[in-house]
Amino acid sequence: MELMRLAPTNELRRFNRLLTHFFDEPFFPPEREVAESGTWAPRVDIYDTKDAFMIKAELPGVDKNDIKVDVDGRLLTLRGERKTETETGGQDTSYYRREMFQGVFERTFTLPEAVDPATIKAEYKDGVLHLEVPKPEERKPRQIEIH
Fold this sequence. Notes:
- Strand 4 and strand 5 form a beta hairpin.
- The longest helix has 20 residues.
- The chain has two domains: 29 residues; 82 residues, Immunoglobulin-like (Sandwich), CATH 2.60.40.790.
- It is an alpha+beta fold.
- It starts with 7 loop residues before the first helix and ends in a 13-residue tail after the last strand.
């Protein structure tokens, strides 16, 4: 029998790797599964200004007419589709690597307060959707004058 020196740091690294994969896989499926399912999720930035909630969504390669934005109460839903490119040469094309997602997408966000859908402004430029969701008048912060 051969004696081996105990290396606790190796065990800790192995445990860390196992724990990371355990928590990542249910929430972040491997890219292959996402691509095969035909769904993807655009990346977004959401921030708050004095008068509005701002949402920026990266949608490169998506036609403006394929994007829909719906508001139902406090829920804002962004959905659409990036269509498959057909300029690659047809049926006889073999991919070595395919990382660009195609298919439908949908993201739903809960706004902090109910907004008027008629006041929302949307602009799509250079593959980025900009949404400006004005805050309701009665909920805007205001300074109270002391008499």
